[in-house]
């Protein structure tokens, strides 16, 4: 997918993500769930406006209060559709000029009473089961537990008007449709959204429910919520149980951002900054090692040194920039589009901002003045715009800039260090003092606080100063100590202003010349050093050496070059010895390995022989058994047959003898028988002869049969058999014994050899141990004397080359000290010179607005600079003037031109963008194609730059950005409106809000990814499902999920790092390789000098989050203090099942009340340096932080009851209580941390809310405390040394032990 297409789809996804956040951020009251009678109210307004022939508009309060929601049924949905459709058409109808004579009496009959073609006022959906956001508060509003959101566009991203969306909602619900509705069909994908805000208060886990039919989806939701719906403790409204609602959600929350997205989708005007930001630098791809680096990416010594000369302005008369702040400023001066500056809490981002603000102001003033000299037209830069989603962060910026200005003004009597506009500028509802206050306004649509201004307020300030400048100019010259007073503004006044501008311009240049001379004497050596730095960094990056090792090595060489230059031979000798010992050890280990292998073979042989001996012994034993019992011998059968064969003749003889005896006996029977017996036998085979013969035969057969047994049982036979068998077994036994003898001899031989090998191995291993000890000693010596240089990362020749710059390093250190002094002298003076130059230029730029007659310039060639883009020339042809750059046209035939203006006056106004002629003010306005002149200033394009000298730095929240920069009657939002944008707390901002970068040319992001991340409405699994609607490629989905995600990381997600905040994306988009900045933290630029917290406090965060790289620099002025910086108040009170701990709250309240008098007298009076401290000062110095919303709410309630409420709000406690998320960006002298957990959680420390995954919660909680941090909790529960809370407890204990020893 092409880059442009990828970005376009990414922005479509982000636009949806913002709308999802908007839906889940909506809250309802009971009163809202009823009919609003919207159409009746609208009809009334229409009739009133029509009667007066006015422009039609709705009251803003009415529009903002209308949040349509109704119980869902087939009956109620039609009335809901009627009311919101009426409202949607009405909003689109606003701005129409009504004329009673022509327009219909009823608004719905007006031909322009139609839906908008490009935007809806509401998003629409189905909400389920409204629950209290805080179930334990009577004031809590209701939020939907789930919402099915129907987008305002189909699958092809074609815009859908409300009527079309309602058809699809009804179709999804299975409601009946009209014939016309049946005919309409579009592919729209609704999304089922779960509201994460109900997780913690109701003790729920994230559900896994997929969108299906309405009935099935509702059943799943009810089943998921069943456990809490049945519990009385949550006090859930019965009427909202098991209910679904049709809702319309206002898009105002993120309207300022969606306006920018809408412009991009329509005009494809993505600027180069956005493209640079949403691009992963090849060296920052997670799973690829890229062994290349561009020289432009390396912040060499030359670049750092050159920054001394190119840093023209600063803004601090007391403190110069610290080392890492200076490095960050050098990166800023590189002028890349994206500058991510990572900084732990309290590491001086305000100081860095002052340095950058001062430089920006000076260079802007120079640019404006030089342009004025050349073109005779004053063009100002735009103010620095600070933006964030965290209002406290923007307040801190305002206060940080203002306090710097005020403190400088107080401590320096010179008028130089003041503003010279005037004391007061009075607006309708407030007065702005510009005398001792720089005044950094937060620009908003709706103004509430003193430091907030609307665009109209800003215009009013400008108009007051520009139209009636006499008082202001007289004040200006009074501060210059010039004895003059103007009774009117005229050419003499203009001449004096020009002289003032020239004076300050010259003063700036004098200082710049001095700054440029700073580095002249060292430049040649710096060039040589830089050449080597570039070579070495490139070389070792290409060799695949880790960046942090390269930086650490360079740092060590620079820091210890003096020592190394005299001990390099020693290092070389040690390393040579070390390598030789390593080689010897390896040789010994090789020999040991060989011997062990041989010994192992012998052991195997012995083992095999032993097995064989055992087998032979068993065989001998068996053979002996056969000797003892010949009948069981395996030879028995064969020997028996053998002996039997031997005596076969004897056996035959015996057999024949029996037969002969039988024959003889039969003959005797016949011989002894009478004639009758013989006749009977002869004829009949009967008689006595027969019987006697049968008897003899039987007897003979029996004898023969017995002969088979008795013959072989005779002694001679048995003895012969035994002897035969015995001989055979004796031979076997003899052979076995001979074999045994041989094996035994081998075993003896093997055993001797094995013993010799074992002895040799033992001796060799001892030798290795001795050499290992020697190695260890050398390692310790090398580490102690030479640090990382001993790790052999750099080649020796490269180390030698760098050490040659020992003197240069010393000169650089001295030069840096000298340069630091310029921060608080010439550079800061330059800022004030520039400020007063800009003030003079502001008066000069508005001479055309003075209420006096000034001779109009003569334009013979009719060619002037374009008043809109300021780049092209306005060339007149006939009645049209066209810009050669932006192609906008101005027509003299425009019927809307003020009729009193002739051509000469028109050209005068066009040249100056605005002018007052004959008491009437005229303004140049522009659309995308045309330039117009009117008496109304409706164009905001020039507003911020035209007021830059008055408001050189402003704040705009991310959410309202597009609204503030857009023109009232034009939805088109230009790209590149601002020259420089600063985004603060970027680590907490979701990527979807970085679309504001399209309005800037360059951005610096302050953030800390070690602190809290954005809170998302869904995780990666759901995000990937949504992304399938925008990307067909799994690869593209994977890229978004990994590098540009708007989802929380799943616990089982395989990727190590996930870019799901604006700071991580910035860190991945660009490379600033600082060669001497050793660090293990992600992100190239880190501010590391810490000035906020006492050292024992910040060291907790240092260990758990920052690899101990943060340098605590806050001085502890109170060495004799009686209070403890770290405290652990232990208790065993029970935690409830819904994350509250009443007993702990009572302990906290007692702690605060009991220590009030002591802390006021001993603590606050000293740190505040005030004589009188009241109770309110004490309570304002304390902050209470807890991980849980329910504990926060209970704490607030108890503090109001037992200590008191805020003087301006009875519902707020006198002490600020908040969750960790609400406290980010704030600080207090004393922070109390209510951990809530207790003994019922013992053994589960790793699963505690603030111990999971990352240490961000504890990091933020701890670093809110400037002087004292107090932990409440159960030691056995939270002190596991392997957890973040365990590290916190360890530091508290160590502090206590040190304090006790003192």
Helix content: 40-55%
Distance between the termini: 67 Å
Rounded average pLDDT: 87
Number of strands: 31
How many helix segments? 41
Strand content: 5-15%
Structural class: alpha/beta
- Rg from C-alpha positions? 48 Å
Uncertain spans: 852-862
Biggest sheet architecture? 6 strands, parallel
What gross morphology would you assign?
A: elongated
Strand order, sheet with most strands = 19-7-20-21-6-22
Topology, element by element:
Blueprint: H1 3-24, H2 38-52, H3 60-65, E1 69-71, H4 76-93, E2 122-132, E3 142-150, H5 162-173, H6 179-183, E4 191-194, H7 214-229, E5 244-250, H8 255-267, H9 272-277, H10 301-310, H11 323-332, E6 338-343, H12 349-375, E7 384-387, H13 391-411, E8 424-426, E9 431-433, E10 442-443, E11 452-453, H14 455-467, H15 470-479, H16 491-516, H17 523-542, H18 547-559, H19 561-628, H20 636-646, H21 648-672, H22 675-684, H23 688-710, H24 715-786, H25 796-803, H26 806-845, E12 864-865, E13 873-877, E14 880-883, E15 889-891, H27 903-912, E16 914-917, E17 920-926, E18 931-934, H28 943-946, E19 953-955, H29 961-965, E20 981-983, E21 1003-1007, H30 1020-1027, H31 1034-1043, H32 1062-1069, E22 1086-1087, E23 1089-1090, H33 1095-1105, E24 1111-1112, E25 1126-1130, H34 1142-1154, H35 1156-1167, H36 1175-1180, E26 1182-1186, H37 1189-1202, E27 1205-1206, E28 1209-1213, E29 1216-1219, H38 1220-1223, E30 1228-1234, H39 1256-1262, E31 1265-1273, H40 1275-1278, H41 1284-1301
Parallel strand pairs: 6-21, 6-22, 7-19, 7-20, 10-11, 20-21, 23-24, 25-31, 26-29, 26-30, 30-31
Antiparallel strand pairs: 1-5, 2-3, 2-5, 3-4, 8-9, 12-13, 13-14, 14-15, 16-17, 17-18, 27-28
């Amino acid at each position: 997918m092409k880059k442009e297409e990828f970005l376009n789809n990414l922005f479509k996804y982000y636009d949806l993500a913002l709308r999802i956040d908007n839906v889940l951020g909506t809250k309802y009251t009971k009163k809202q769930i009823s009919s609003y009678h919207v159409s009746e109210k609208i009809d009334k307004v229409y009739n009133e406006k029509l009667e007066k022939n006015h422009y039609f508009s709705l009251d803003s309060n009415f529009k903002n209060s209308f949040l349509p929601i109704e119980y869902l049924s087939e009956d109620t949905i039609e009335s809901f559709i009627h009311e919101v459709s009426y409202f949607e058409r009405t909003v689109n109808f606003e701005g129409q000029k009504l004329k009673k004579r022509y327009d219909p009496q009823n608004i719905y009959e007006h031909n322009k009473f139609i839906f908008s073609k490009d935007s809806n006022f509401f998003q629409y959906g189905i909400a389920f089961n409204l629950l209290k956001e805080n179930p334990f508060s009577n004031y809590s509003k209701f939020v939907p537990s789930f919402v099915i959101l129907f987008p305002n566009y189909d699958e092809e991203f074609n815009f859908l008007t409300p009527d079309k969306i309602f058809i699809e909602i009804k179709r999804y619900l299975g409601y009946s449709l009209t014939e016309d509705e049946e005919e309409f069909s579009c592919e729209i994908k609704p999304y089922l959204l779960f509201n994460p805000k109900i997780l913690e208060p109701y003790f729920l886990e994230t559900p896994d429910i997929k969108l299906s039919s309405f009935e099935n989806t509702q059943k799943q939701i009810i089943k998921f919520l069943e456990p809490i719906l049945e519990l009385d403790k949550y006090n859930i409204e019965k009427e909202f149980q098991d209910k679904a609602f049709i809702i319309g959600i206002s898009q105002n929350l993120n309207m300022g951002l969606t306006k920018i997205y809408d412009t991009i989708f329509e005009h494809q005007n993505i600027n180069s900054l956005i493209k640079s930001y949403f691009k992963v630098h090849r060296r920052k791809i997670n799973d690829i090692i890229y062994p290349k680096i561009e020289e432009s990416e390396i912040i060499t010594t030359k670049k750092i040194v050159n920054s001394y000369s190119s840093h023209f302005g600063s803004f601090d008369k007391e403190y110069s920039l610290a080392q890492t702040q200076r490095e960050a400023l050098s990166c800023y001066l590189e002028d890349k589009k994206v500058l991510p500056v990572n900084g732990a809490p309290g590491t001086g981002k305000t100081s860095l901002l002052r340095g950058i603000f001062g430089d920006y102001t000076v260079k802007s003033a120079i640019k404006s003045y030089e342009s004025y000299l050349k073109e005779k037209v004053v063009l100002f830069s735009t103010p620095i715009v600070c933006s964030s989603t965290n209002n406290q962060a923007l307040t801190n910026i305002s206060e940080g800039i203002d306090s710097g200005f005020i403190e400088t003004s107080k401590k320096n009597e010179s008028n130089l260090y003041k503003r010279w506009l005037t004391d007061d500028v009075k607006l309708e509802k407030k007065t702005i003092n510009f005398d001792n206050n720089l005044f950094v306004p937060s620009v908003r649509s709706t103004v509430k606080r003193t430091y907030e201004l609307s665009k109209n307020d800003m215009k009013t300030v400008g108009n007051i100063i520009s139209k009636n400048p006499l008082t202001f100019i007289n004040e200006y010259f009074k501060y210059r100590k010039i004895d003059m007073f103007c009774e009117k503004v005229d050419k003499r006044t203009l001449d004096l202003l020009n002289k003032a501008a020239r004076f300050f311009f010259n003063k700036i240049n004098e200082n710049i010349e001095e700054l440029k001379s700073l580095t002249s004497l060292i430049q040649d050596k710096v060039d040589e050093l830089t050449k080597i730095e570039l070579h070495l960094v490139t070389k070792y990056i290409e060799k695949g050496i880790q960046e942090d090792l390269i930086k650490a090595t360079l740092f060590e060489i620079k820091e210890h070059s003096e020592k190394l230059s005299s001990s390099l031979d020693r290092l070389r000798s040690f390393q040579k010895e070390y390598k030789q010992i390593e080689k010897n050890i390896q040789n010994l280990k090789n020999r040991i390995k060989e011997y062990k292998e041989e010994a192992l073979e012998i052991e195997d042989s012995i083992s095999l022989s032993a097995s064989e001996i055992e087998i032979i012994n068993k065989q001998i034993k068996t053979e002996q058994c056969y000797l003892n019992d010949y009948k069981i011998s395996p030879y028995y059968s064969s020997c028996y047959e053998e002996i039997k064969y031997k005596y076969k003749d004897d056996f035959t003889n015996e057999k024949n003898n029996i037969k002969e005896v039988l024959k003889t006996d039969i003959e005797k029977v016949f011989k002894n028988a009478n004639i009758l017996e013989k006749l009977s036998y002869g004829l009949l085979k009967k008689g006595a002869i027969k019987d006697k013969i049968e008897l003899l035969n039987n007897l003979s057969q029996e004898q023969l049969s017995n002969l088979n047994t008795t013959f072989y049982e005779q002694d001679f036979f048995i003895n012969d058999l035994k002897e035969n068998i015995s001989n055979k077994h004796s031979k076997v036994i003899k052979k076995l014994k001979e074999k045994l003898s041989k094996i035994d001899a081998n075993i003896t031989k093997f055993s001797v050899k094995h013993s010799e090998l074992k002895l040799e191995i033992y001796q060799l291993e001892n030798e290795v141990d001795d050499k290992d000890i020697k190695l260890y000693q050398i390692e310790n010596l090398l580490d102690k004397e030479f640090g990382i240089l001993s790790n052999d990362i750099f080649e020796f020749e490269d180390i030698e080359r760098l050490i040659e710059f020992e003197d240069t390093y010393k000169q650089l250190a001295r030069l840096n000290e000298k340069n630091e002094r310029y921060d608080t002298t010439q550079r800061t003076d330059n800022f004030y010179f520039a400020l007063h130059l800009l003030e003079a230029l502001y008066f000069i730029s508005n001479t055309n607005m003075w209420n006096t007659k000034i001779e109009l310039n003569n334009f013979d060639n009719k060619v002037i600079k374009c008043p809109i883009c300021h780049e092209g020339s306005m060339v007149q042809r006939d009645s049209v003037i066209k810009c050669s750059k932006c192609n906008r046209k101005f027509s003299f035939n425009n019927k809307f031109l003020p009729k009193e203006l002739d051509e000469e006056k028109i050209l005068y106004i066009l040249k100056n963008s605005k002018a007052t002629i004959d008491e009437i003010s005229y303004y140049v306005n522009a659309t995308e194609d045309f330039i117009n002149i009117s008496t109304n200033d409706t164009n905001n394009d020039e507003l911020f730059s035209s007021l830059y000298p008055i408001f050189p730095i402003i704040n705009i929240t991310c959410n309202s950005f597009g609204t503030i920069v857009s023109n009232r009657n034009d939805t088109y939002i230009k790209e590149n409106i601002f020259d420089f944008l600063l985004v603060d707390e970027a680590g907490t901002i979701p990527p979807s809000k970085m679309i504001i970068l399209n309005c800037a040319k360059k951005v610096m992001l302050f953030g800390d990814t070690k602190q809290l991340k954005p809170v998302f409405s869904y995780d990666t699994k759901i995000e990937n499902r949504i992304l399938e609607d925008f990307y067909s490629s799994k690869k593209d989905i994977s890229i978004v999920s990994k590098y540009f995600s708007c989802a929380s990381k799943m616990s089982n997600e395989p990727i190590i790092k996930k870019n799901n905040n604006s700071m991580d994306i910035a860190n991945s988009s660009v490379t600033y390789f600082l060669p001497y900045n050793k660090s293990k933290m992600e992100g190239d630029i880190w501010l590391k000098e810490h000035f906020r917290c006492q050292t024992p406090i910040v060291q907790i965060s240092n260990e758990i989050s920052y690899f101990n790289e943060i340098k605590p620099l806050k001085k502890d002025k109170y060495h004799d203090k009686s209070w403890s910086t770290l405290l652990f108040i232990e208790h065993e009170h029970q935690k409830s099942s819904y994350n509250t701990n009443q007993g702990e709250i009572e302990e906290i309240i007692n702690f605060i009340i009991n220590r009030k008098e002591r802390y006021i007298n001993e603590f606050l009076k000293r740190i505040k340096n005030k004589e009188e401290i009241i109770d309110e000062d004490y309570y304002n110095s304390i902050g209470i932080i807890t991980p849980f919303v329910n504990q926060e709410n209970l704490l607030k309630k108890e503090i109001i009851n037992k200590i008191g409420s805020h003087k301006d709000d009875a519902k707020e406690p006198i002490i600020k209580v908040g969750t960790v998320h609400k406290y980010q960006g704030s600080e207090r002298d004393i922070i109390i941390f209510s951990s809530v957990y207790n003994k019922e959680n013992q053994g589960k420390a790793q699963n505690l809310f603030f111990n999971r995954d990352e240490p961000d919660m504890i990091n933020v909680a701890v670093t809110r405390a400037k002087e004292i941090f107090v932990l409440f909790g159960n030691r056995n529960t939270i002190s596991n040394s392997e957890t973040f809370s365990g590290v916190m407890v360890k530091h508290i204990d160590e502090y206590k032990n040190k304090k006790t020893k003192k």
